[in-house]
């Protein structure tokens, strides 16, 4: 909200019974041009007076330079006059001033205020320089006010951040649900095929052992079958070596089983159009969001960086 000053109004003050009263008309008065932007300090706070384009009246905005940003001030102007479609601040060299800049920094130098298609050149008044001790006290007070502001708004920020993370986690879980169901079906199919392959291998080895025993004791003698078993053993060793050459891994039964399982899994995934990369990306995002949520719910002293704790010590 702002205080409205009608264009061309003269204001004078006098003291009566310990109170200040004001009337239109009279003895000492200052007539402020309606097309200028002025800045005055009242009770230590800057008061910016400007003309509202739609309402055609001057309006005063009292800002708190330590916590108020340029963006917040421009939003106050636009809220006061709905006809303000464009409100921006530029430095004297033409560069745009960021909305995150504090008003305290802005009021140190001249600047240009653009409202709709009108440009105002603003020259803030020069404040009296403080001595070094007073300046140090003021800086300490500003730092304290800033810390109090952050502390008072920390809980609201934490609640808002936690709500955003919970919504993100729920959204990721909804996207993952059909993929998890499809993945479970593919895993069951791949695991069944791998188990069947292992049982087939056991059956073939049993058949081979039984055939060699039958040929050794019932058909031929050991003298005849010994070279046969030697070449079978040598062929098996060659097969294991070929496996190492192709896979760069030793033929260890658990590793071979996992490799065959992955082969069946990816082949089944391709047939059912299961996007493994998208699934992994969603899982990583979900884990990251849950970790951020867990850290957010921790006590504040447990979330401080180590370097900050050392600085406080």
Structure description:
58% of the residues lie in helices and 16% in strands. It is α+β, with helices and mostly antiparallel strands and 313 residues long. It folds into 2 domains: 3-122, no CATH class; 153-299, no CATH class. The strands form 3 sheets. The chain has a 4-stranded antiparallel β-sheet with strand order 1-6-5-4, with helices on one face. Strands 7-8-9 form a 3-stranded antiparallel β-sheet, covered by helices on one side. The chain has a two-stranded antiparallel sheet with strand order 2-3. α3 packs across α5 and α3 (132-219) packs across α6. The longest helix has 88 residues, at 132-219. It is rod-shaped and about 120 Å long.
Task: Name a few traits of the molecule.
313 residues, 3-stranded antiparallel β-sheet, single chain, 2 domains, disordered C terminus, 4-stranded antiparallel β-sheet, rod-shaped, 9 strands, alpha+beta, 8 helices
